[in-house]
Amino acid sequence: MAIAHQERPARPKRPRRRAGSTSRCLPYLLIAPAGLLMLGFIAYPMLSVLYYSLRDHNATKPWRNGFAGLDNFREILTDDPFFWDTLAFSARWVFVEVGLQLVFGLVLALLINQTFVGRGLARALVFSPWAVSGVLTSTIWLLLYNPSTGLSRYLADAGIGEYGTSVLADTGTVFWGAVVAELWRGVPFFAILILADLQSVSKDLYEAAGVDGAGRLRRFWHITLPHLRDAIVLSTLLRAVWEFNNVDLLYTLTGGGPAGRTTTLPLYVAQTGIDGNEFGYAAALTTVAFVILLFCSILYLRLSKFGGDDR
Amino acid sequence: MTTVSLGHDPRPATDEPPPAPPAGGARRRRRRPHDEPPRWQVLLPLGLYLLFTLIPFYWMLLFALREPGSDSLVPWPVTGQHFEKVWTERGFDTYFVNSVRVGVATMLMTMLVALSGGYALARFRFRLRMPFMLALLCSQFIPGALMLVPLFEVFRELRLLNSLWSVILAETVFQLPLSMILISGFIRNVPASLEEAAWVDGCSRLRGFLAIVLPLLRPGLVAVGSFAFVHSWNHFLFALMFLNSNDKQTIPVGLNTLIGSDSVDLGALAAGGVVAAVPVVIVFAFIQRWLITGFSAGAVKG
């Protein structure tokens, strides 16, 4: 209203309509760049995934290409044991990673929220793996896990473990080898988000609880944790989706091996679509993965009653 | 008119006291040391975690700096030959420049587009607002890896394959939703009355925004911008797929080539890792303080 007065002082009779029309157009102009980019590079490719998912499409076998109806989906759900294997591995990977990252991140945030000398430096150092890429994480941990020049060799020199231990080649240890590497990079994300939220807990609440005789553990349980709930729900959800979709680390660290033991669903899709050239089948897998992800996310937000208190 | 805007001033004045209590609280706490956990309960676990964080970094530096064939645990005598090899023979000089280009362009584009969209989401109620928000949230569930094939087709039609722009556009698009949600949270935290006061004083909406809102958004913009930079610097699959000539590749792809080569040269690999790590670690060291204030202002409350 005030703007309208400024812009059209000569026509005080119709300020309301002027204000209405500018503020009706302006938001659309402002979201237009984002909207167009997302239409072109997210919505359109998504639709084309849906289209391909209903087709047989293989660039190397063009004579077989054509409409396939729901055949791809039927094959995925009833006739592709590897799909269920990768789905189970994805679920295990996400569950273990997000759970451990949350626990370590929470503890780390609580520790670093204390006052002590050198806190700024400790904080910067502890958070630094956040900025490191999946490929670089792989690089670093490949150096550490290397059986002949890695950490295990020096530990064996000191009498711990055996020579020639290869964490990544053994089907029994490869999962935890990858988990630790991803943990190294993933914990800072939670620690940063939780620390940010910790700093907004009212000190008065703690003081009041302290006066009432509540111990540190009880104050954590009854004040800190409820305060952090929304941040924890949101960050675990974002992280779970991110870990599900994350391909960089496993692709470069284990390549999905040994013997397909660390192949997640997106990695399977990438292998099917890119290495195997089965675009149609990969598109159907993509669709299934997206639906599963969306369903789990909605379920999670419902169950955790996200934002339930104030909205 | 100005009296109306001044009418809001008393409120910030009454908001002033809160900063005082924490100081008083801290003073009080120092008087009651038993209220805080004992020193060792903080420093011991933190020290252990610090080891877990730093040993991998040290390991990389060790391999990058010590002479080939040496198995000492201290990188002495120091050699620069691995860096020289990676930089000149393995093409990391080109990769580095490409990665910087992609990172900076993605950062600028993400900030501009997210700022404009975030402002609309924060300050207007319009019919497509909720559908648009929903689309932003939904897009978070789309696996980037699964979009490779269709995006490849799009960029082929646009004749952008093997151009850095394909990677820049793809990175920006996948960076946008979260950035926009964050920024709209930051903008909502700036009282609309401040802006309205500027319009009353004769500023246009744009000038009011630039003069009043933008300076207050600095921590948030730093967080979002550095996020975009770090992500595009680190991201690997788009560059792997869309860029096929060697002089267009980025650092993560170069690293992957080193990992995948038949006889892995561990010294060169480690040196390549250091080259990949240095820029993001520097960016991170500068921004980590703002990152935390940025998140506490935008992500969590927004």
From TrEMBL, chain A:
One of its GO terms (biological process) is transmembrane transport. Gene3D superfamilies: MetI-like (1.10.3720.10). InterPro entries: MetI-like (IPR000515), MetI-like_sf (IPR035906). PROSITE patterns: ABC_TM1. Residues 87-300 form the ABC transmembrane type-1 domain. The chain crosses the membrane at residues 26-47, 93-112, 124-144, 279-301. It is a multi-pass membrane protein. Keywords: Cell membrane, Membrane, Transmembrane, Transmembrane helix, Transport. Belongs to the binding-protein-dependent transport system permease family. This is Sugar ABC transporter permease.
Automatic annotation (TrEMBL), chain B:
Its main location: membrane. GO terms for cellular component: plasma membrane. The chain crosses the membrane at residues 40-65, 102-122, 134-152, 164-187, 208-233, 266-287. The keyword Cell membrane applies. SUPFAM superfamilies: MetI-like. Keywords: Cell membrane, Membrane, Transmembrane, Transmembrane helix, Transport. It is a multi-pass membrane protein. It comes from the Bacteria. Residues 1-34 are annotated as: Disordered. It is found in: Cell membrane. Pfam families: BPD_transp_1. CDD domains: TM_PBP2 (cd06261). Residues 96-287 form the ABC transmembrane type-1 domain. Belongs to the binding-protein-dependent transport system permease family. This is Carbohydrate ABC transporter permease. It comes from Streptomyces hainanensis.
